[in-house]
Structure formats: structure tokens, C-alpha cells
Request: fold
Amino acid sequence: MSLVLDAAAQDLLFREARTANTFTDEPVTDEQVQAIYDLVKYGPTSMNQSPLRVTLVRSPEARERLVQHMSEGNQKKTAGAPLVAILSADNEFHEELPQLFPHFPQAKDLFFAERPAREGSAGLNAALQAAYFIIGVRAAGLAAGPMTGLDFAGVQKEFLDDDHTPLMVVNIGRPGEDAWFPRSPRLEYDDVVTTV
Reply:
């Protein structure tokens, strides 16, 4: 059985898509980011929580502050990307549930009154949305360089607040010279899928 998505789109989103390590200086516009969000916001989350929050790092001053919190191997990549996004989980996402999950208004207090329950759910669902975000960047014809090599506590203190937990930093732009590392192996279907 073949996929409905045509081969070119499959390549764009998956097979040929890679983590970019260098970028051109072509800017990434607010309109492009808006288009990415308007596509990926439809990805499912539990109870439509939608806890992902995106902090765009555009100013040179903010970029310099962020680079200081990146691991040594990620500093140059982050300094050279035309746009950098800090993806975080909003641990107070439950405040939006009456709007996002209107057919069950009690969910906010019934399931998420306690902070530990919110943090666990926000982290899982925001990570799911982060994956959609990366696919959305690719759908826009851009390359994404997601990274978790960073000082999470430092990024939180510098850019977020106690209600937002950083998940990753994503460099965004057009791939530059020598942007790709060699493709790493992948597991095969039979190594991953078990039927019971």
C-alpha cells in the first residue's frame, strides 16, 4: 500500500530532511513563522492542551545571551542561524482548557489542579508539538536544527519564567554550505514494530 502523500512531499518532510548545522543569511520572516504555526497548530494533543510556547530570538543582544547557554558544539550554529526558536512547555496550560476543551470544562480542575500533573502532561504534549513544529519548518521549505545541548536552567532563567520549561532550541533557515552531517542509520520496521 502506498502513502497518499506524494513522493516529493515525503522527501521534503522526512526522507531528505536533515538537521541543518549551517545556514545562509537569508532572513526568516514573521509571515513564514505564522504560516508554520497556522499549519502545525492542528496536530493533536491530549485534551487539546496545546502547551507548546515559542520564543523567537531575533535581536543580536538576545542571540548573544542565548549562545552563552548553548553547549560548545552548538554555539556557532546558534550564532549563525537567521532565526532561533526556544520551544517550551507552559505548565499553566490548564488555564486555556475552558477555551480549548469546551465540552469538558471541569477538566481544568479535575485533572490539572496539582502542578506535578500539569508539568508531566505539559512536557509530553509540548514535546509532541515540538515534533510537529519541526515538520512545519520543513513544510515551509526551510531547514530546522533542533538541539537539546544547552543549559536548560540558564535558558529558563534568561528567557522564560518558572511556569515555562524549556524543551529545545531550534535553529531555522535555509541550509548553508556543508549543512549536513552524514545520515545516521535508522532501525528497520521489524526492529521497532511488534504485533501481539
Summary: The radius of gyration is 18 Å. The first helix runs from residue 7 to 15. The chain has nine helices and four strands. The longest strand covers residues 164-173.
